[in-house]
Amino acid sequence: MAKIDAIVSWKKLNLGAAITEPGSARQFLTGDWRTQRPILNKEECIRCGRCWIYCPEAAYNEDEEGYFICDLNYCKGCGICAQECPVGAITMTLEET
Amino acid sequence: MPKRVGMEVSIGIAEAVKLCDVDVISAYPITPQTHIVEHLSELVANGELDAEFIPVESEHTAISVGAGASATGARVYTATSSQGLALMHEILFIVSSMRLPIVMTVANRALSAPINIWNDHSDIMAERDIGWIQTFAINGQEAYDLTFHAFRVAEDEKVQLPVVVNIDGFTLSHVIEPIELVEKELVDKYLPPRKPILTLHPDNPVTMGPVGIPEVYTEARKQLEVALMDSKEVVVKAWQEFKKIFGREYHPIETYKTKDAELIFVTMGSITETAMLAVDKLREKGEKVGLVYIRLWRPFPHEEFYNAIKKAKILAVLDRAISYGTNSGPVYTEIRSSLFDKKKKPYVQGFVAGLGGRDIPTERFFEMIEIARSAAEKGECPQYIHLDVKED
Predict the structure, then answer these.
(1) In the predicted model, is pLDDT for residue B108 greater than 80?
(2) CATH tag, B253-386
(3) Out of A5, A10, A15, closest to residue B215 by CB
(4) Domain boundaries for CATH 3.40.50.920 within chain B
(5) Looking at domain B4-246, which CATH architecture does it have?
(6) What is the DSSP string of A4-16?
(7) CA of A25 to nearest chain B CA: how many angstroms apart?
């Protein structure tokens, strides 16, 4: 039989495919969807946090120095952060294959 | 003895819903369903029924609100017809896939265009594959009884699926019939409070209806299909239990004078009682005819259907809807597919009649016999015949 690309048997799937474990979306790494990655220029960054606010994947996290760093495990490369950055500190660059 | 009361069937259904102690009724009025929800609205307004009646702005919202309420564990009822059912379309799949045991009465009515408020089965046939359990009532008593049955089956631990009870618009919904009303205590015995398996509650967070990536979606669909197929056993048991408590007997497939019948009519819904009259008249003339009517449409009871018709030589299947662009009505297609692998099977002739409220008199059944017999003799390639259409 050819390989079946499935996570769980239909017999073990929760009723109606419900998810009963909170925060399980974290296990789903969406970073490999990305074709472009955001590059932050810390010299220009004013640490306003707009990238963190606008990121639809909540991929940005604040570091100890107050910079907002993109977690590339989840970043889909949509570029909203670069668009919204008021000082142009984020640029999108093509992912190298 | 329980009392038989003359009442409009729509009012009877609303009274049945009241006895089922529903928590939420979310509905939008549409002819010919209106009297059901109007009466429920009155019952809630005057304090006879302790439920939330949510008068929404469309049927799309009616079923969406119902889904949300059902997800919190509430017992939910709604009703609609025709364009209203069509407007619910995308949410109907979500309700079954999320395994929400909503009960809905559909007062069957034709679909536009041209605009037509009268009865046929084109509304529900367009929603045939929504994954809901679907039953058809032939008279007021059944419309009443099937309402209790629907909640009992829907909420069964093994089922957890929504149910549509189909009643013919006007010919049932607006007709006054004698209905044997049931006692509240007996309903309570038959229908225990709902025990949901998963509910939306802050104490136990659950995500219902999440994204189903390709690695999950197939299994989710398989789960629904198996649940629907397996529900037949519960549907049948719930009717057996119904008989024990209320005394009336129901089966997925019913027969009328089929014992020695060479030709059997197949019907669904209220036209069945006209077909019975036709069978009686034909029997008086010595014709060996009978009738099989389908009460459980989904899941389709293939085995029961075959057992009911296997001795017949000819089946005359009456559809109240057209499945456009092929050679059939939906019931006819179902039956021919069901019988395809059987070595011994009757000749099956399909008919379409009674669209958009066109009357089907007993004479129409006499015509069906002639046509079906002649076709069977010739062994012509089967095609459905549209009976009551003016050609010239």
Answers:
(1) yes
(2) 3.40.50.920
(3) A5
(4) 253-386
(5) 3-Layer(aba) Sandwich (3.40)
(6) ---SS-TTTSPGG
(7) 10
- Chains A, B: CB contacts within 8 A come to 61
- In tens, the pLDDT along A30-56 reads 999 999 999 999 999 999 999 999 999
**A97 CB near a chain B CB, below 8 Å?**
no
The fold for domain A29-94 equals: Alpha-Beta Plaits (3.30.70)
Residues carrying CATH 3.40.50.970, chain B: 4-246
In this model, does residue B382 exceed pLDDT 70?
Answer: no
Whether A6 and chain B come into contact, CB under 8 Å, resolves to yes
Q: Torsion angle, CA of B131/B120/B347/B325, rounded to 10 degrees?
A: -70
B191: number of Cβ within 10 Å = 20
**Which residue on chain B is closest to A9 by alpha carbon?**
B219
Sequence-distant (≥ 6) Cβ neighbours of residue B355 within 8 angstroms: B110, B120, B122, B320, B321, B322
Instruction: Dump pLDDT digits (tens) for B1-40.
Output: 678 999 999 999 999 999 999 999 999 999 999 999 999 9
